[in-house]
Amino acid sequence: MHPEKIRVLVVDDQPQLARIVRLILEETGGYDVLIETRACQVPATARAYRPSAILLDVDMPDKNGAEVARDLWRMEDVRDIPILFFTGLVPISEAGERETAYGTRRFLSKMVQPPQLLTAMDELLGKKIHPAKLSSLEAPPRPSSGSAGLTIAFA
Known about the structure:
Layout: E1 6-11, H1 15-27, E2 31-36, H2 42-49, E3 53-57, H3 65-73, E4 83-87, E5 96-100, E6 103-109, H4 114-125
């Protein structure tokens, strides 16, 4: 019998980035990912899909991530779904937890390696989901150009 996969709703107005995130998560075998590219649709999608977690872009054209989180918080049936804000607005060094009007929120920079994304998801859910086979998800080394390696960076 296979363990049930963890449902994750990935919300990003950049479909190509959302597909990369889905690939990384689903490659572990522990996640089932649904992509939503329209922030205004997130409450309805969350109600219908019932995710265990939401990976939420901060900077989107129709609503920003804080507004979406506020909308979710106002809905009793989805308010307890943990949210990981995924943003190109903060560098890796400034990501982490922040106090907001709706409690502590976690922020993850879009400039992360796949193992960092998986670790952040484990921490958000409070359990280890991904298997130890992370080496296949590592990004190939980048030529040295004086900047840090960036794998998922689509700000």
